[in-house]
Amino acid sequence: MNLAEMTWPAITGLPRKTPVVFPIAALEQHGRHLPVITDALLLGEVVRRVEQLPTGQRCLFAPVLWLGNSHHHLDFPGTLSLQGSHYLQVLQDLARCFIDHGFSRLVFLNGHGGNIVPAQHALFELKQDFRDYRELLLLSLTYWEAGGDPSGVIPGLVQRQMGHACEWETSMVLRLAPQWVVGDISQLPEVPFGTGFAPGHRAWVMPERSEPGHIGVPAAATAEKGEALLNFFAHAVADFLDKVASWDGSWS
């Protein structure tokens, strides 16, 4: 169900256990070859495909929030971003709107790496404010993490994880909007992921990792891979949301 297309009386009539899904993305640089709207474009398509599955009638989908936490990309013109504290407040305010109307299952469906920690933080704090509301289920999920590594079922994938303006994202944009892919991607160099001091976590900004602004192997991208990836991610997200809709209140 698409929130933007519904009237308030129709929304009032929904069961309060209906999962409410907030797709959260970003508008930021994606290398020299992809548009700044990439994250919102791809997440919007994943949501569109989920809506067409049976899961789509079990959940209520808000419009994609195109503005995210992208300060680590601000060295590249065109990036728009909210500071972390401001972004947390935006997410919490969105969630509170539906909590105030009695809805008890809320999901931030994420499409941008920089949103992962803020979304988790926002929900962690929000849960403390509603600590005695045991039926309140607050969740975040990044769409490309929903089904694990897709390389086992999609032939020819070079990468085994999401990068940035990489094989995966470039493939999906080639599938959805090839006219927006700039230049000969076959000539784009690989930018290795690196280790980032794993198992620790290093704070970073993009110029420290990549001069052109991409990470991964965009030269390996194809529209065929993009279709397979979008299908894989949509079904994995749908499986997750089915579990949310069927939750029995237990710890799981």
Would you write up a description of this structure?
The protein has 252 residues and is an alpha/beta fold. The protein is 35% helix and 8% strand. It is built from 7 helices and 4 strands; from the N terminus they run αβαβαβαβααα. A 4-stranded parallel β-sheet has the order 2-1-3-4, with helices on both faces. The longest helix has 23 residues, at 223-245. The mean pLDDT is 97.
CATH superfamily: Creatininase
Helix content: 25-40%
Strand runs, count? 4
Low-confidence stretches: none
Average pLDDT level: 97
Gross morphology? globular
The radius of gyration over CA amounts to 18 Å
Oligomeric state of the chains present here:
single chain
Strand content: 5-15%
CATH class: Alpha Beta
CATH overall fold name: Rossmann fold
- SSE succession: HEHEHEHEHHH
Could you name the key traits of this structure?
single chain, 252 residues, alpha/beta, Rossmann fold, four-stranded parallel sheet, 8% strand, globular
Describe the structure in brief.
The protein is of the alpha/beta class. The protein is 35% helix and 8% strand. It contains seven helices and four strands, in the order H-E-H-E-H-E-H-E-H-H-H.
Fold topology:
Elements: H1 8-12, E1 20-24, H2 38-52, E2 60-61, H3 84-100, E3 105-110, H4 116-129, E4 137-142, H5 167-176, H6 206-209, H7 223-245
Parallel strand pairs: 1-2, 1-3, 3-4
Helix pairs in contact: 2-5, 2-7, 3-4, 5-7
